[in-house]
């Protein structure tokens, strides 16, 4: 009985959390259109989330490209399909690996950062002070951050894609003697807008989800300083899960519009 | 303030670079699909497009020149494929070119190959339709392969039967493989063959020697033939031989005629030789003659004793005695 009660409670909490998050998202859309617009804070957040995450994304992307190629090579050689490496890696990275890996990195870095930052502001009552002083904390803190992640993530994804393809091309050049020109010719020969547009579009949603969850967890942080750590932690977990969920939805929807 | 300005500049660089990368990537993909360059459209009607899709490549003599824009089912057996071709290829593709559905390697995606054909043709125009060639589809290949497999199975079954029979010891091949006596016989035969071969080699050597000797003699004969007197003698002998031969030939001809006549029973001799009835008559006549002669002897004897003719016979005897005395 207790077990069932705990399950029911878990479901109820999950639904409540989902509802609160949806309400939070609704408030974001309401606030994002209303002036005044916090451009300066938006640019600052874009810098924090875009430029500051770039190196991490580049290093990760490069390693992903190297590893993917090194791991795939023996199998492709076994099937006599070594020349298909650029096609395979190009499509895998642009369609799926690039956006998802970049989003997960950003979920780890950005969502936790936002969660911790807003959480500590909530705990130290800075947000309350902003409300008292007549500044709309939601617009200043949440809208700017969510917009920044939404706008920056596609750019980070494209940087990650390019550097991952470069890493893969480097391995093909060193191990298989394939020129960079031939490699990228084959990659772009294999790619179509059906690969590129859905991947870029879903990157916006990944960014939105990461920013939204980070802000949500930080904005509603409670229980003192311990809550700050919990907010940062749950923000990462929830953002990562939602990235996969959004990815599934994106693939499902793009399958309708583009022949995969 | 200075710090935030620097941050904005860095952000600007980041955004511009990222946007440029997106644009370049979009351009590269679009360029590959002939979105950003002038194109024209041609069509081709196929019976089967073998899984061809929109966006698949179109190649002219192996060069990517365009993409498949649309695939429309016109009738139950004809599918019209619209191809978007780069405009700079307009002068090269002639209206007698043919389109064939192919694939990029064994496991590659489908594509359309446009192949030029010999002969003069006019450059294709926008909206033109070009001829097509049906491709051997995988199903046909598999059907052929299936027949081959069935034949292979039959052959294998036959082979199995043969090997079993050989194992059981029936047939010549089995005896060759498993019969030790036959193996010994064969071994002996091979040995004999080797001996015979050696003898043959010796015989051939001797023959060669003989031929060599004959060649030497022939050369000696050549030396003799160089003597004009001897040559004239030989010529005369040969002429005599020739005339004798002709006479012999004539004589032989006559003898042949005679023999032919005799064989055919012509003439008395022929009849005597061949006619059995005549032989019987002659034999019969001789018998009568024989008995007639006996009776004639008896008559003559009777005449000798007759008183009318006795004197004649006595006179004859006296003359004979006188003649004998004179001698």
Please, could you describe this protein's structure?
- The complex is a heterodimer of chains A (260) and B (327).
- With 260 residues, chain A is an all-alpha fold.
- Chain A has helices at residues 2-33, 39-78, 85-123, 126-132, 137-176, 180-190, 193-219, 224-257.
- Chain A is elongated, with a radius of gyration of 21 Å.
- The termini of chain A are far apart.
- The mean pLDDT of chain A is 87.
- Helices cover 63% and strands 15% of the residues of chain B.
- Chain B is built from 8 helices and 7 strands, in the order H-E-E-E-E-E-E-E-H-H-H-H-H-H-H.
- In chain B, strand 5 (98-103) and strand 6 (110-115) form a beta hairpin.
- The interface between A and B is medium-sized, with 28 and 25 residues.
Instruction: Find the biggest chain interface.
Output: A-B, 28 and 25 residues
H/E order of the elements of chain B? HEEEEEEEHHHHHHH
- The structural class of chain A is mainly alpha
Output the number of helix runs of chain A. 8
- String of helices and strands of chain A: HHHHHHHH
Quantity of strands of chain A, as a count? 0
Are there runs of chain A of 5+ residues with pLDDT below 50, and where?
Answer: none
Percentage of residues in helical conformation of chain A: over 70%
Coarse morphology of chain A? elongated
Q: What's the total count of β strands of chain B?
A: 7
Q: What is the number of helices of chain B?
A: 8
Q: For the terminal residues of chain B, how far apart are their CA atoms?
A: 196 Å
């Amino acid at each position: 009985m207790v077990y069932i009660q705990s399950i029911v409670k878990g479901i109820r909490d999950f639904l409540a959390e989902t509802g609160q998050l949806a309400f939070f998202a609704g408030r974001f859309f309401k606030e994002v259109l209303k002036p005044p617009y916090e451009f300066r804070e938006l640019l600052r957040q874009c810098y924090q989330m875009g430029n500051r995450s770039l190196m991490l994304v580049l290093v990760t992307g490069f390693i992903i490209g190297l590893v993917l190629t090194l791991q795939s090579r023996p199998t492709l050689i076994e099937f006599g399909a070594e020349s298909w490496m650029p096609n395979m890696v190009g499509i895998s990275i642009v369609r799926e690996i690039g956006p998802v890996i970049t989003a997960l990195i950003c979920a780890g870095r950005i969502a936790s950062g936002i969660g911790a930052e807003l959480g500590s502001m909530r705990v130290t009552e800075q947000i309350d002070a902003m409300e008292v002083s007549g500044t709309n904390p939601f617009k200043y803190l949440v809208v700017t951050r969510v917009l920044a992640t939404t706008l920056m993530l596609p750019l980070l994804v494209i940087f990650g894609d390019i550097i991952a393809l470069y890493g893969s091309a480097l391995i093909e050049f060193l191990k298989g003697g394939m020129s960079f020109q031939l490699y990228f010719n084959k990659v772009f020969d294999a790619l179509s807008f059906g690969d590129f547009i859905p991947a870029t579009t879903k990157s916006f949603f990944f960014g939105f989800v990461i920013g939204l969850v980070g802000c949500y967890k930080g904005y509603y942080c409670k229980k003192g300083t311990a809550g700050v750590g919990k907010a940062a932690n749950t923000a990462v977990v929830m953002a990562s899960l939602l990235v996969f969920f959004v990815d599934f939805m994106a693939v499902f929807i793009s399958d309708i519009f583009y022949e995969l | 303030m200075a710090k935030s300005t620097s941050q904005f500049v860095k952000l600007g660089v980041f955004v511009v670079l990222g946007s440029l990368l997106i644009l370049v990537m979009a351009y590269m993909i679009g360029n590959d699909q002939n979105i950003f360059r002038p194109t024209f459209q041609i069509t081709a009607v196929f019976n089967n497009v073998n899984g061809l899709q929109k966006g698949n490549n179109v190649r002219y003599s192996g060069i990517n020149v365009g993409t498949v824009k649309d695939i429309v089912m016109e009738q139950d057996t004809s599918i019209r494929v619209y191809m978007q071709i780069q405009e700079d290829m307009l002068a090269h593709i002639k209206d007698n070119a043919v389109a064939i559905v192919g694939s990029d390697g064994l496991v590659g995606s489908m594509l359309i190959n446009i192949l030029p054909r010999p002969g003069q043709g006019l450059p294709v125009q926008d909206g033109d339709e070009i001829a097509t060639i049906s491709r051997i589809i995988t199903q046909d290949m598999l059907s052929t392969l299936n027949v081959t497999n069935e034949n292979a199975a039959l052959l294998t079954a036959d082979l199995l039967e043969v090997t079993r029979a050989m194992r059981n010891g029936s047939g010549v091949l089995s005896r060759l493989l498993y019969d030790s006596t036959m193996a010994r016989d064969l071994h002996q035969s091979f040995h004999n063959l080797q001996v015979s071969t050696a003898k043959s080699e010796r015989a051939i050597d001797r023959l060669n020697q003989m031929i060599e000797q004959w060649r030497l003699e022939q050369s000696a004969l050549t030396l003799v033939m160089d003597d004009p007197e001897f040559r004239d003698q030989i010529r005369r002998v040969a002429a005599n031989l020739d005339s004798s031969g002709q006479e012999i030939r004539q004589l032989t001809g006559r003898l042949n005629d005679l023999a032919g006549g005799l064989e055919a029973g012509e003439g008395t001799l022929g009849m005597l030789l061949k006619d059995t009835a005549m032989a019987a008559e002659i034999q019969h006549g001789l018998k009568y003659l024989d008995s007639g002669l006996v009776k004639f002897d008896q008559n003559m004897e009777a005449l000798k004793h007759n008183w009318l003719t006795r004197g004649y016979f006595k006179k004859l005897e006296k003359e004979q005695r006188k003649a004998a005395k004179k001698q």
